[in-house]
Structure formats: C-alpha cells, structure tokens
Amino acid sequence: MSKIFDAQTKELLDLVSAELKKKREFSPPAWATYVKTGVNKERPPVSRDWWYVRTASVLRKVAILGPIGVNKLRVKYGGKKRRGHQPSEFRLASGNILRKILQQLEKAGYIKQVQIGVHKGRKLTPQGESFLDKLASTISKNTKKPVKESSDAIVQEETAGDDAKKQKKPRKKKVEQKAEEKTEEVKTN
Hints:
By secondary structure, the chain is an alpha+beta fold. Helices cover 53% and strands 12% of the residues.
C-alpha cells in the first residue's frame, strides 16, 4: 500500500480536497469568502475551494510533522510581507483559519490532540492515516511508471546529439557583424 510520500503533492492535495468537499463535517465559515489567509497577503484567495485545499494541506502537514500545533502551522503557512521601500519581513499566517480547520479535522476523527514528552499538538489518527494512504494508493495506481531504456539506446541518443551540435554554425559576434555591414556599404558606394 502506498504512503503519502509516494504520491505527488499537488495530485494528492487535489484528490483529498475533492474528497473532503463531499463530507458534511467540512464547510467554510461564512466569513471565509472575505478573509485573507494572513497579514502578508494583499487580497483574499481567488479560488472558491481554497478552504478545502487548505484543509487538505493541513491534514498532510499534520501527517508528516507529527504532533504540531497552531503556532507551528502559522509559521509554515506564513510568508514575506512586502512593505514598499522598507525591507520585507516575515509574517505569520492567520491563526483563526488554521484553528477552525484543525477543529473540523478533529471533529471528523482524522486527527487528535496528544502530548508526547514536551511536544503538544495534533497528531494523525489511524482513521486519518488510512484515509490519506487510500487516496495516495489510487494516485500511484493511476500514474504509469516510466519504462527503463536500454543503455545502448541512451548512448545512441547522446552521440546523435553531439553530431547535431557539431553541425551548427557558430554565431558571429556583433562587432564582426557591424564590421561586415560597413565593408558592404563601402563596396556598394
């Protein structure tokens, strides 16, 4: 069975967000259409499904990074704030968005709060892990594995490429071109 590391991130997030959209537990709040995702952003997200994509991304981050809290996620989703002539500075992402997403994931049973030693945060449950692994395996089944070429074919392609490089004419420098144009003008006059 494939793990989430075997699947391409973009494909996995698209598939997970489509699956989360079908479930009742996940719905964006009423204010989600107007809100920016952080102080560093100038405008709200353009996509209408950004809430589901961000939820899928947070679920993946929780699966990869283990017990993780809102503050660490704010750092992960933060970015540079452009301040005009002043140097850019790092700003954290919106904590309210991440908190609501984590609460929805917890309510659905995909993550739970744990404390491992001094590390406190949310961790993936077996239900959440099987959900992600099932979607990752469907992606890996759909993608075709590249066929290995024989070493002879690769050598032939390399030598053919070298021959093509030798056949190209060298480009003239601009100084040489200008000198030739002047000599042509003198000849025509």
